[in-house]
Design brief:
The chain folds into two domains: about 200 residues, NAD(P)-binding Rossmann-like Domain (Rossmann fold), CATH 3.40.50.720; about 80 residues, Alpha-Beta Complex (UDP-galactose 4-epimerase, domain 1). The protein is about 35% helix and about 20% strand. It is built from nine helices and 15 strands. Helix 2 packs parallel to helix 3 and helix 3 runs parallel beside helix 4. The protein is globular. It binds nicotinamide-adenine-dinucleotide (NAD). The site of nicotinamide-adenine-dinucleotide has 28 residues, from helix 1, strand 5 and strand 8.
Length: about 300
């Protein structure tokens, strides 16, 4: 396959690119490097099966031009910062237009496959039950979640209108090597500055499933290769979850620190739009034969070790 990976220089995107290349596929990375890093893909630059385009999905003409000649689109690009939405809601507008430009170009060029990275945030504030893919109503509480839900709608409707096939993966919190944002990165940065005290957003009881990066990439390929509806909707997560205070303890342990004072900012949410607790139902993926190799706590610990090896 000749794959077009938007956001391919980012955390998840660059791991996806590694896997595509290792499977022998041709890859074009289309990334504006707003949060991605050329460093994450530099090992492919000499590969003749690899092509890097530094551009923004907002630029319709460039998307249309660069997309030509590809078979499958992996749409991974988005502003990944859920916290930002309450200060800068325009990030939603940009991500929705980006998704529209991509799908519209696919329609014009007669491209037939799109794999999209959605998120648990589309579910909004829900009862404390494992959430199956058909849970509703979907009322996101973050602008980020709203943009993902809008993009899911666009993917589904373009699939129906233009005879395309779509795979929508709703990711849990993905962690691991090359992570550039999120709670683990935040804690490591803070503790490197001040190893005596750690500020924790909220009351520390926020509890979510954490998925290790290799499990995420395995899951994407497994879901893509083993489902065949017009629009395939899949939760990608694990059945266990980890409290924020536990993450702090793991980071402290792995940094070899002692007597760190945890200072909570208070309230049940870490920020406006934060869903404090959620759990995925991943029966659909497990029925296909996929499961994670790591529990949520194991994923957190492995990611801490990966990230402690880097400068961040
Ligand atoms: P990331 O910031 O590392 O990757 C996003 C990439 O997209 C970056 O390389 C960035 O430069 C690029 N990008 C953003 N806007 C662009 C645009 N308009 N045009 C071209 N390139 C653009 O983030 P990530 O954690 O790897 O997330 C990847 C995807 O997965 C995102 O869509 C994110 O919303 C989604 N997601 C991530 C998580 C997670 O826990 N990391 C959870 C759920 C969903």
């Amino acid at each position: 396959m000749r794959a077009f990976v938007t956001g391919g220089a980012g955390f998840i995107g660059s791991h996806l690119v590694d896997r595509l290349i290792s499977k022998g596929h041709g890859v074009t990375v289309f990334d504006n490097l707003s949060s991605g890093k050329k460093d994450f893909i530099k090992h492919h630059m000499i590969n003749k099966n690899f092509n890097f385009v530094k551009a923004d999905l907002i630029d319709y003409e460039t998307v249309l031009k660069e997309l030509k000649g590809h078979d499958t689109v992996f749409h991974i690009a988005a502003n990944p910062d859920v916290r930002l939405g309450a200060q800068k809601p325009e990030i939603a507008k940009k991500d929705i237009i980006a998704t529209y430009n991509l799908l519209d170009s696919m329609g014009k060029l007669n491209l037939k496959e799109i794999v999209f990275s959605s998120s648990s945030t589309i579910y909004g504030e829900t009862p404390p039950i494992p959430l199956p893919e058909n849970y509703g109503p979907l009322l996101p509480i973050s602008v980020y979640g709203a943009a993902k839900l809008a993009a899911e709608g666009l993917v589904s409707s373009f699939c129906h209108s233009f005879g395309m096939k779509g795979w929508i993966f709703r990711f849990a919190n993905v962690v691991g090597e090359r992570g550039t944002h999120g709670v683990i990165v935040d804690f490591i940065k803070k503790l490197r500055k001040n190893p005596k005290e750690l500020e924790i957003l909220g009351d520390g009881k926020q509890k979510k499933p954490y998925l290790y990066i290799t499990d995420t990439i395995d899951g994407i390929f497994y879901g893509y290769e083993n489902t065949n509806e017009q629009t395939n909707l899949l939760n990608l997560g694990c059945t266990t979850s980890t409290e924020v205070t536990r993450i702090a303890e793991i980071v402290v342990e792995e940094m070899g620190l002692k007597d760190v004072k945890f200072k909570y900012t208070g309230g049940k949410r870490g920020w406006i739009g934060d869903v404090p607790q959620f759990q995925f139902d991943i029966k659909k993926m497990s029925k296909l034969g996929w499961n994670t190799s790591y529990s949520s706590d194991e994923a957190v610990r492995k990611a801490v070790l990966d990230l402690l090896d880097t400068n961040l």
